[in-house]
From TrEMBL:
NCBIfam families reported in the protein's UniProt record: ssb
CDD domains: SSB_OBF
GO molecular function terms listed in the Swiss-Prot or TrEMBL record: single-stranded DNA binding
Protein name: Single-stranded DNA-binding protein
Xref: SUPFAM superfamilies: Nucleic acid-binding proteins
Organism: Lachnoanaerobaculum saburreum
Keywords, comma-separated and alphabetical: DNA-binding
HAMAP family for this protein: SSB (MF_00984)
Upper lineage: Bacteria, Bacillati, Bacillota, Clostridia, Lachnospirales
GO BP: any one term: DNA replication
Domain of life: Bacteria
GO cellular component term of the entry, any: nucleoid
Subunit structure comment from the entry: Homotetramer.
Biased composition, class Polar residues, residue ranges: 106-117
Record-linked InterPro entries: NA-bd_OB-fold, Primosome_PriB/ssb, ssDNA-bd
Length: 138
Protein backbone atom coordinates (compact mmCIF):
# COMPACT_ATOMS: atom_id res chain seq x y z
CA UNK A 1 0.00 0.00 0.00
CA UNK A 2 1.39 3.40 -0.98
CA UNK A 3 -0.25 6.09 1.15
CA UNK A 4 1.23 9.13 2.85
CA UNK A 5 -0.40 11.54 5.31
CA UNK A 6 1.59 14.56 6.42
CA UNK A 7 0.98 17.78 8.29
CA UNK A 8 3.31 20.75 8.09
CA UNK A 9 3.81 24.35 7.01
CA UNK A 10 4.06 25.63 3.47
CA UNK A 11 7.59 26.75 2.66
CA UNK A 12 6.35 29.12 -0.08
CA UNK A 13 3.18 29.87 -2.02
CA UNK A 14 2.19 27.06 -4.44
CA UNK A 15 3.41 27.37 -8.03
CA UNK A 16 0.82 26.55 -10.67
CA UNK A 17 1.27 25.65 -14.32
CA UNK A 18 -1.02 24.28 -16.97
CA UNK A 19 -0.41 21.30 -19.22
CA UNK A 20 -0.28 21.80 -22.99
CA UNK A 21 -3.05 20.60 -25.23
CA UNK A 22 -6.71 21.16 -25.93
CA UNK A 23 -7.74 20.32 -22.38
CA UNK A 24 -5.14 22.15 -20.29
CA UNK A 25 -4.95 20.75 -16.76
CA UNK A 26 -3.74 22.70 -13.72
CA UNK A 27 -0.68 21.34 -11.89
CA UNK A 28 0.38 22.93 -8.58
CA UNK A 29 3.64 22.22 -6.81
CA UNK A 30 4.47 23.17 -3.25
CA UNK A 31 6.77 22.10 -0.45
CA UNK A 32 5.75 21.36 3.12
CA UNK A 33 8.16 21.53 6.07
CA UNK A 34 7.28 18.60 8.33
CA UNK A 35 8.74 18.56 11.86
CA UNK A 36 10.42 15.38 13.00
CA UNK A 37 8.95 13.85 16.15
CA UNK A 38 11.94 14.09 18.50
CA UNK A 39 14.36 16.37 16.70
CA UNK A 40 14.33 20.12 16.24
CA UNK A 41 14.67 19.46 12.50
CA UNK A 42 12.23 19.32 9.61
CA UNK A 43 11.94 17.35 6.40
CA UNK A 44 10.94 19.25 3.27
CA UNK A 45 8.38 17.26 1.31
CA UNK A 46 7.56 18.10 -2.30
CA UNK A 47 3.84 17.86 -3.14
CA UNK A 48 1.97 17.92 -6.45
CA UNK A 49 -1.75 18.59 -6.93
CA UNK A 50 -3.73 18.29 -10.16
CA UNK A 51 -6.94 19.82 -11.56
CA UNK A 52 -9.31 21.43 -9.06
CA UNK A 53 -7.00 20.51 -6.18
CA UNK A 54 -4.23 22.51 -7.87
CA UNK A 55 -6.53 25.51 -8.37
CA UNK A 56 -7.64 25.30 -4.73
CA UNK A 57 -4.03 25.29 -3.53
CA UNK A 58 -3.16 28.30 -5.68
CA UNK A 59 -6.19 30.25 -4.48
CA UNK A 60 -6.11 29.50 -0.75
CA UNK A 61 -2.70 28.19 0.37
CA UNK A 62 -0.03 30.69 1.43
CA UNK A 63 3.50 30.48 2.77
CA UNK A 64 3.58 29.61 6.48
CA UNK A 65 0.10 28.04 6.66
CA UNK A 66 -0.23 24.66 8.31
CA UNK A 67 -1.84 22.11 6.00
CA UNK A 68 -2.75 18.44 6.13
CA UNK A 69 -2.42 16.40 2.98
CA UNK A 70 -2.77 12.79 1.97
CA UNK A 71 -1.74 11.06 -1.21
CA UNK A 72 0.72 8.60 -2.64
CA UNK A 73 4.49 8.75 -2.93
CA UNK A 74 5.95 8.74 -6.41
CA UNK A 75 9.62 8.58 -7.31
CA UNK A 76 11.17 9.55 -10.59
CA UNK A 77 14.35 10.63 -12.31
CA UNK A 78 15.51 12.82 -15.15
CA UNK A 79 18.76 14.01 -16.68
CA UNK A 80 19.46 17.68 -16.05
CA UNK A 81 21.13 20.09 -18.53
CA UNK A 82 24.57 19.14 -17.17
CA UNK A 83 23.97 15.49 -18.05
CA UNK A 84 23.60 14.38 -14.41
CA UNK A 85 20.81 12.05 -13.35
CA UNK A 86 18.54 13.68 -10.77
CA UNK A 87 16.17 11.65 -8.58
CA UNK A 88 12.91 13.05 -7.20
CA UNK A 89 10.33 12.01 -4.64
CA UNK A 90 6.92 13.71 -4.53
CA UNK A 91 3.58 13.15 -2.86
CA UNK A 92 0.79 13.17 -5.43
CA UNK A 93 -2.08 14.74 -3.52
CA UNK A 94 -5.42 13.01 -3.08
CA UNK A 95 -6.78 15.34 -0.36
CA UNK A 96 -5.58 18.60 1.14
CA UNK A 97 -6.96 20.90 3.82
CA UNK A 98 -6.07 23.59 6.30
CA UNK A 99 -4.73 22.21 9.58
CA UNK A 100 -5.42 25.22 11.82
CA UNK A 101 -5.80 28.98 12.09
CA UNK A 102 -7.65 31.14 9.60
CA UNK A 103 -9.31 28.89 7.09
CA UNK A 104 -9.23 25.86 9.42
CA UNK A 105 -11.92 23.40 8.55
CA UNK A 106 -11.89 24.29 4.87
CA UNK A 107 -10.96 21.58 2.45
CA UNK A 108 -10.46 21.45 -1.29
CA UNK A 109 -14.20 21.04 -1.72
CA UNK A 110 -15.09 24.19 0.27
CA UNK A 111 -15.90 24.85 3.88
CA UNK A 112 -17.33 22.45 6.41
CA UNK A 113 -20.39 23.44 8.36
CA UNK A 114 -19.59 24.09 11.99
CA UNK A 115 -22.05 23.44 14.80
CA UNK A 116 -23.41 26.58 16.45
CA UNK A 117 -22.18 25.37 19.85
CA UNK A 118 -18.59 24.63 18.77
CA UNK A 119 -15.86 26.16 20.93
CA UNK A 120 -12.52 27.54 19.78
CA UNK A 121 -10.78 24.35 20.99
CA UNK A 122 -12.81 22.24 18.55
CA UNK A 123 -15.07 20.63 21.16
CA UNK A 124 -18.80 21.19 21.49
CA UNK A 125 -20.61 22.30 24.61
CA UNK A 126 -23.34 19.82 25.50
CA UNK A 127 -26.33 21.52 27.10
CA UNK A 128 -27.17 20.54 30.69
CA UNK A 129 -30.61 19.45 29.50
CA UNK A 130 -29.07 16.45 27.71
CA UNK A 131 -29.32 13.44 30.03
CA UNK A 132 -26.75 11.26 28.28
CA UNK A 133 -29.28 8.87 26.75
CA UNK A 134 -28.14 7.94 23.24
CA UNK A 135 -24.63 9.33 23.64
CA UNK A 136 -21.81 6.89 22.74
CA UNK A 137 -20.38 7.22 26.26
CA UNK A 138 -21.74 7.49 29.81
Amino acid sequence: MNQAIICGRLVRDPEIRYTNGAEAKAVAKYTIAVDRMKDKEADFISCVAFGKSAEFAEKYFRKGQRVLISGRIQTGSYTNKDGQKVYSTDILIATQEFADGKGAGESQTGSRPSPSNARADGFMDIPDSVDGEGLPFN
